[in-house]
Amino acid sequence: SSLPEKKVIFKGLTANKEDMNKLMLTPQIHYPLPGGSALITFEEAKVAQRIIEMREHTVELSYGELEELDQCRMRVQAVPMELPLPSALEIRLTPSQRSILLSALPSLDITREALLDKLELFFSKKKNGGSEVESREFLEDSDQVVITFTQDGVAEPLIEKGHIQVPIGKGKYKVKISPCMSGDISNLQLQPSRCPRTVLLLGIPDVLSEDSMRDALEIHFQKASRGGGEVDALAYVPAGRTGLAVFVEDMG
Prior knowledge:
The chain has helices at residues 45-54, 112-123, 155-161, 210-221, and strands spanning 28-33, 37-42, 56-61, 72-103, 133-138, 145-149, 163-168, 171-202, 231-237, 243-248. The chain is of the alpha+beta class. The chain has two domains: 28-87 and 191-248; 90-186, 2-Layer Sandwich (Alpha-Beta Plaits), CATH 3.30.70.330.
């Protein structure tokens, strides 16, 4: 992507060369959960470790939903929650032969679709250095636009210009033109990483409603007398169903 130009002055700190040119990844992992399981995240990592070391837990159920018994117990297994995280990543960048990236777009009182229409109309004309436009789109979560032409050889001369004046409505606006890069992962290595505060519970029978089972698990595992502690989050998937848990970076 290309950022809008802005004049700046240096008032910061220097860094080692070895620390530069590193790709920072923000993990967001989607992990399938089987039926009869639960994920429980504690406020403290030492509580999760204690629960895992105990391995098997007997949870009391007494919610009046069971027909034959007013109270019964179930046994569940506590295991570590391990996720595959990248340990090495190589990305091969390739400039597009038919696309350009537009940035520094003006903030106007028109819809995004209307702005795309005006940009397509401008860049489809040969007198502006353009050609027939195949597609136009805003980059996701961005104010930058990708214009793709139907022919080769159109993008490069526009990129060499760097900027171009685009008439929109009654005004003209200077828009920055940059190469549009696509990236392919050429090498990816994964290694298991344990979630320090999260525990996976297995073997949960389908004997209570979803809300009641979630309450029973949280009540049990937040009691210090049973090795537990304060619960930060809990997700339960009943038997016969599947779930999808989303893991993000632990900022706590």
